Structure formats: C-alpha cells, structure tokens
Amino acid sequence: MKPLAELLRHLSRPGITELALASGRPPMVRNATGYEPVDPGALTTDDLVKALQAMVGLARASTVSETPVQWTVNATGLGSLSIAAVRRGDLMNVRLTRATEGATQAAPPAPAASAAPAAPAAPGRTPYAATPGASAPADAVARTAQAGGPASVEAPARTAPVGAASVRGVPVGSVTAPSSARAPVADAAPARPPPASAPSYVADAAPARAIPISRHTPAPGRDLAVLLEQARSMHASDLHVVAGRPPLFRLAGELQPQDTVLAPELVERLLLPIIPERLRHVLERDGSVDFALDSEETGRFRVNVGRQRTGLKGVFRVISREIPTLESLGLPADIAKATHHHQGLIVLTGPSGHGKTSTLAALVDIINRETTHHVLTVEDPVEYVHPRKRALISQREVGTNTRTFASALKGSLREDPDVIVVGELRDTETVRMALAASETGHLLISTMNTPSAAKTIDRLIDLFPPADQQQVRLSLSSGLRLIVSQRLMPSTDGKRMVAAAEVLTGSVALGNLIRDNKTYQIPSLQQRGKSLGIIRFEDSLSDLARSGKATLETVKGFAENPDEIEAMVTGKRPGAAGTVPPPATPQEGARMLSKVGSLLGKKGA
User: Fold this and answer.
1) For residues 369 and 182, what is the distance between their CA atoms, to the nearest angstrom?
2) Cβ proximity of 342 and 443 under 8 Å
3) Distance from first CA to last CA of the chain, Å, rounded?
4) Angle, nearest 10°, between helix axes 405-412 and 428-439?
5) Per the database record, which ranges form the Bacterial type II secretion system protein E domain (predicted)?
6) CATH code assigned at 40
7) What's the CA gap between 112 and 151, in Å, rounded?
8) Last residue within a domain, chosen from 292, 319, 346
9) Burial level of 467, CB count in 10 A (0-12/13-18/19+)?
10) Are 87 and 236 found together in one domain?
C-alpha cells in the first residue's frame, strides 16, 4: 500500500470526488467516467485498519463492525470530508467522499466525537451503501498522545463528530447491516456515475425520466433500498413487500419474514414512486406491471408490482451483479457445445423461478466471450445487462424498445443478427417467428415454462392448429439443437439452491421421432442416448444425492418415480432385501445378462 498521504492527495485532483479502499482490491478513485485504480497493489485488512486509525483515532476505528458507521471531518486543503466504514469478518471497506463545494468552505470546526449527536447525512452527500472508501488529507492527519483519540482541531479526522450515515435517508444505526462482506467497487461501480442531482433509482422502462425512491422514511429500517440491500446480502432470490405483512425473503426456496408488519400506506409510499410513468395507467387498468429497477448501490432487480386484497404488493427478483457461468450454476459444461451451432433452436425449460433466465444469460455470455457474433435479445424486462466483450450485444425491452416479442422478431431479421435471444416463447405468433428465424440462418435461444423436454416439444406443436402441425414437426425435426429442463432444490445444508437438469440434444434419432409424431418414445431414447450427450432428469437427481449436494428425500420429492431414484442412489432394488448395484450403462447390463446365461448353461450341463 502506498503511504496514506500519497493516496489522499488524489482527492485534490480536479474531478476526483471519492477515494475507495477495500480488502483484496487496489485503491481506487472516482472520476467523471467511473472508478480507476491508483495503485496496482491489493490492500489488506491490516492496511485499512491502520489507515482508519490514522484518520479517526484508535478508539473510533475499533468501533467499526457490520453496522456501517460514518464520520464527518474538516480536512486541511480539502474541506469537509465524509469517512464511511464497515467490516464483516476479515474484510473491510472504507471510503472518503468530498462534500459539495461551498458547503466545504463554510463548514465549522468539528466538535469532539463523544459530544456530537448523530445526524443524518446531508441530502447532497453520496449515501453509504456498503461500498468501500476512506480518507483524510495526509498533512491533516496529525497524531496526539491522548488515550481516547485526539481532540485537536488540527487533526480533524480524529476530532470528527460521529454522524449517522444515511442509506436513502435512513440513519445507519437503524439499518440492518448485511451479514456478508462484498467489495462492490468492481461489481457495483457504474461506468458513468449520475450527477449529484440525479435520483437514486432509475427504472429501465423510462430512461428519459428518472424514478426516485421516496426519501421519506416512515419507520427505521423500512426504506426500500435497505430492504433490497438486505435481500442481496442474505443471498435471497426474491423480496416480497406486501401490505399487511412483514418483508418476506425467499431463502433456499422458503419465504422467511423479517422485521415487522408493513402498513398499506407505507407500502404505497415505497412502491408507487419506483413505477415508471408509462406503466402507471397499466397498473390502474390491469392491476399489475413488470419492469426492471437498477441502483448503483443495491444492483439490479426484476420487479412486479400489483394490487391485491390488502393493498399493493411488490416482488423483487434479485439479479446477480455478475453474469453467471454454467459451472457456477452447477449445470453440465457440455451444454455450451450448443452455442457453436450457426442456426437452429435452443430451448431452456422449467417452472417459473427455477433459474432459466440465469442459464440463458450464461449461454449468451459464452457467445459474448468467444465469438464476434451480433446477439440481439428481446426481453420483458431486460434482466442481466451484458457488458461489452467480443460480441455485439443489442438488448431490446418489450414495451420500451419494441411493442411485442413477435414484432421485435419480425424486425430483427433485417438487423443482421447471428444469434437471437427471446426471453420467453409465450404465444403462437412468437413461436412461429422463432421457428422461421431458426430456419433462416440464425441461432435462436429462448425459454418456456414446461416441465420436461418431451412435453416442451409437444407444447410447441400443440400451439398451432392441426393443419399446421405437420409443418411444425418438420421444422423442429431439423432445427432443434438442444432442450434443457431444469429444477432448483435446497442444498443439503439448506443455505442455497442446487440445480438438476435434463438435457436432450438434437440428433437424427430425435428428429425422426418428432417428424413421425412419436414423441411418446422420447423417454426410451433418453435411456439409451448417453453417447449422444443426453442426460435424464433421474440421473441428474441421483448424482446430486450421491455427491451430497442434496439429500435423498429432497431429490425424491422432485422425481416422477421416487423408488427408481432410491434404487439408483442406494443400490437397493424395490422390494428386495439385498443390495444389487444397478448397471451403469445398457451395454454393461447386456454383459451381465450374457454372463448369467453362460453360468446357467454350465450348471445345466
């Protein structure tokens, strides 16, 4: 780590407003284009502790914990500065933010920290949202010999009054701190920071008009931004904000209440301001709207706001800050092979809330990393925002950038795409356009809410009138490249979700079954098609149980034939007292039968 004095001098550079320090990351400053490192070396937690002690004193530095704290100081040459710090386990985040000009020069000398009452951060100040940072100018950090921390105005960083930081206007003391540390400088730092007057939240659906979250906080800890932060830090998949109920977090598939009951008036004050103006009449007309919400501090969320018996209800799906990979999702790596096709249809299926969007994003990211293709996505709303890599990614949102999925697909054929990604195949017109695109030299990737690979094919065909179904079978028989049907289930420790996946790859045998209207024989093809890259759902479930990622009882609850799963995992045949390991492959089973036959022949002789 460079000397603290040298790091703090960066705050005097034009356009630099913040110095951010985090364990395991290099020091960074924030300018008009985002965050940039000022030293290649990564910081250690010991470095941050020593720097904080130099700025606010040993006594105050020792109070840093999982509850974020903030001090306001007057620094020679820099004026009023805000130091915010949080520590979770072995990781620590510290940041120092310069106050706005004018207020800096007029700031009075800071009284002793022990005598200063807690006060909310100024509205113009960047709110602390578990992002790193730290500071106080080098020559302003003087040392004294007082045991409780110096009280000299010449050392303003150590004589600072303890003021309460604010997260969307909520004093930090009343905020439920995240339970795990995350260094959001690289994850959450925007490529282009908003101006000081910009609102905290901007809904994607109305890019020309900012939608701020209400700054009025009726009760401590009830601010929407705080709840969203808490959902992300707890690794919840969803947050439910419902009138007359406490906030509900979906953790490992289970809804768990937190805090106290939310009054209907409070829920309206939290939810109404974030709805894009173009959708407010839709809420009044239809009673429900969908849109995406993006925050610099808390990240990205897919949102549904609707009316129900007790008042408004908001459901926030947590979108990871990082694009997931097949490995991180626990899915077979061979799925990536399907992205090498230049045309055809890939369908990801499963019930709602079982990770189809994440798998879709992982496949798009593979194309983004490995090819120079033009990838055009049509989503409602846009969930994962793909960064610029090798490919050209054009993301369109239904209702904002295009009217419907079908109209976007129709227009996309003139936009020179290589890959077309459709958020969901919902209706006949969308499926018709998708099949046409997959036959005209494009790779089309989409999702459907169907329970299995075989039923996905049946659903695609049944969407059409009988007169058109044979043509659809012909299109699918030649163009289907991959179907992945997945389920999420609680892990053995109950702290996360693990995925089981059924994989059905396109092949001549599958094409013949589809063309001849014999989809009922697909399960038989799956049993003997391991060499084709086919993975049965039952095999995936048994692998989870054998590896200890999920319990046997859990996987049996997702199986159509629980006894078969138990036999595959334990080796016990149903109704048999002994233990007979099942054959690993059909070929092995044939060899076993041949051996038994030869033994019986010898015995008869």
Assistant:
1) 25
2) yes
3) 85
4) 20
5) 413-427
6) 3.30.450.90
7) 6
8) 319
9) exposed
10) no
Secondary structure (DSSP) of 86-148: EEETTEEEEEEEEPPTTHHHHPPPP--GGGPPP-PPPTTSPPPSS-------GGG------TT
**Identity of the amino acid at 246:** P
Instruction: Count CA atoms within 13 Å of residue 419 on its CB side.
Output: 27
Residue 57 lies in a domain: yes
Sign of CA dihedral 544, 545, 549, 553: positive
Cβ–Cβ under 8 Å, residues 122 and 196: no
Q: Give the DSSP letter string of 194-240.
A: PPTTS-SEEETT-TTS--PPP---SSTT--HHHHHHHHHHTT-SEEE
| Residues in contact with 76: Cβ distance below 8 Å, sequence separation at least 6, in sequence order | 137, 139, 140, 156
The dihedral sign for the CA sequence 519, 524, 527, 530: negative
Domain membership flag for residue 478: yes
Alpha helices in 325-385 (DSSP H): 326-329, 356-370
- Contact by Cβ (8 Å): 421, 377: yes
Q: How far is CA 39 from CA 1, 26, 183, 193, in A?
A: 8, 6, 17, 21
In terms of Cα–Cα distance, which of 49, 72, 45 is closest to 158? 72
The answer to whether the CB of 317 falls within 8 A of the CB of 301 is: yes
Of 489, 476, 526, nearest to 504 by C-alpha is: 526
- In angstroms, the Cα distances linking 17 to 32, 71, 100, 204 are 9, 16, 9, 26
Q: Of 487, 513, 535, which marks where a domain is finished?
A: 535
Give the pLDDT confidence score for residue 259 in this predicted structure.
82
pLDDT at 314: 97
> How buried is 513 (Cβ within 10 angstroms: 0-12 exposed, 13-18 middle, 19+ buried)?
buried
Residue partners of 475: CB distance under 8 A and separation at least 6: 435, 438, 439
For residues 388 and 467, state if they share a domain: yes
**Which two structure tokens, joined as six digits, stand for 539?**
């095999």
Grouped pLDDT means (10 residues each) for the chain, 605 residues: 77 84 86 79 84 79 81 73 84 80 37 35 34 36 34 34 33 34 37 37 38 36 80 93 95 90 94 93 94 88 95 96 93 94 95 93 96 94 93 92 88 91 92 92 94 93 94 94 95 92 94 94 91 93 94 92 90 54 56 59 51
Beta strands in 280-416 (DSSP E): 288-295, 299-308, 311-319, 344-349, 374-379, 392-397
Residues 382 and 444 in one domain: yes
Are 528 and 430 found together in one domain? yes
Residue 313: count other Cβ atoms within 10 Å of its Cβ: 20
Count of structural domains, the chain: 3
Integer angstrom CA distances of residue 421 from 184, 382, 395, 455, 601 = 29, 11, 9, 21, 60
Residue 342: give the domain boundaries.
326-535
Q: Do 109 and 48 touch, CB atoms closer than 8 A?
A: no
Whether 70 is covered by a domain: the verdict is yes
Identify whether residues 472 and 347 lie together within a single domain: yes
Distance CA 427, CA 449 (A): 12
Distance of alpha carbon 560 from alpha carbon 256, whole angstroms = 28
| pLDDT of amino acid 600 | 54
On whether residue 265 sits in a domain, the answer given is yes
